[in-house]
């Protein structure tokens, strides 16, 4: 018997009774201190100097002119900077040689008594180069394209099942389309910043990072000191979206400078330099081919991705990977090809792989719906697989169908006129679109400790990082539930490498990974408390947990979160502007532990997907080999005026094959399907399919009707 679908949880747009965020007061009153807000006694300021050529060698640095300036303490270059140990990440091998692999790579660092003096000195520093010819691409059709062994996350770059070519050629209905995306940038509100100092051979760093344990380990290797001699604190982080998921140049440069001058050093990267040094979502060219029968059931599916990386480091956006798990596809080919160019190194950006790959796949699904005449929601339901297509594993839970059905009901999808380009009011064309979304369930090893005080209070300790998602709140809830005590009695200490080691905040895995360790430690502590008679000893009782064995055990199940996003848009036939009128998402993400913070995450993801679809784009300047849009005036993230009232709903999903809490990640799935839902709605409004993001007015206007407004035909 097929189990009944999970019920829809109460609308997250309504007021809920979720716990109030524990750090809310600290953040709104300024008590929360970020990396650049720590100023030790005698602190100096550092400003990096980026290369101004696209490729070449540094031949001279006129540091003597700068050192003569009042207040300047040091100029670090490849000639005098501390020598680093071997770097697993070559982007962190800073000031170690004279090579310039791309414009914007840091070639010097100025340290001065004030930020103003450091900035002025950095601007005045004269550097001479031997310029070499550079290759900025584009990647499509490039003669040096190659197939890597792996895409990001350890996924094989190429996967084939069955005989795609024969199955596609013999299909009754075929879709063959290519979708392109420009580079996108993370742009967290808080800059990448570090404050570092050495004392008696030990290094302390306040760093804006998504994982202080990783930063500590990397710094120890680079600086050739024991890990126990390095303490990294990332107590409050003002956003990262992946760009702070691994150590970035500022923390290495600050530690090097502090060692060189023998005083604390503070360094905050200017926003205009972030595009070149902290990673970005790589541009992609994605060809999707779908072969189906007349009813829209897929028999052949190919998703082939071309992207770029730098000559410094190979980073391959895993955009074709979602197609391996999403729909029934007995004959499949998914591949990645990449070319190394003289450009900045791409890296993680929120929902890497899924965000870009599902845009192409879900747009192609909409194209298949058009050519078959099958409703887009029904088409996806017809292609629900019984098991994960790529691995053959059963799903631990897969409630995508119910997300689509519930979303269609809430959105009023059945009232939709499927004909494109017919709904018009004055100068405005209106359309609706849908897309599905998925994100893998990820779990990493973590440790934690739980302590009971004689006064009845409890302390949970682990080096988790709250990057604004509410980790303090949800971990206290997990602890309180496992201990059987009020959440008010639990204090959570996190954000320092001096605490029990924990994985970074990324991959929508934080709550599952940290929460598993917290639950295990608190369950053990609860057992100790039950076995203890009489008052607790003055030192209290402590239990520890290490989930390495559980996290590294291979699951017999395919574990994913799923969702469905619906969008309604208006296209202005005069200006070419696209405005989103409605966004609605329904998600199946296991047990939602904190409704208040979950709603924030879902809505934040959908807002980011809106930016991906309509406003966020970056142009690589071929003459200079770097990105032209380098600030928030030219790189347009959505603002309040761009974002309508967004509805986020979720199913009350039970999945016993995940972790003790039954939770999946929710941080990134909100973005995954949103861009496709919006672009599909634009097609429905205009009757023209556009396949390049973002859909800015210059791309819209050439395809709009030139006649004046006509009466309402909706």
Descriptive account of the structure:
Helix content is about 25%, strand content about 25%. It is of the alpha+beta class and about 725 residues long. The strands form seven sheets. Strands 3-5-1-14-11-12-13 form a seven-stranded mixed sheet, sandwiched between helices. It has a six-stranded mixed sheet with strand order 9-17-16-15-10-29. A hairpin with a 2-residue loop joins strand 18 and strand 19. The longest helix is centred in the last third of the chain and has 22 residues, at about 510-530. Mean pLDDT is about 95; it is low at about 10-15 and about 710-714.
The geometry reads as globular
Contiguous uncertain segments of 5+ residues? 11-17, 708-714
Please state roughly what percent of the residues sit in beta strands, choosing from under 5%, 5-15%, 15-25%, 25-35%, 35-45% or over 45%: 15-25%
The oligomeric state of the chains shown is single chain
Residue-averaged pLDDT: 95
Please work out how many helical segments DSSP would assign.
17
Radius of gyration: 26 Å
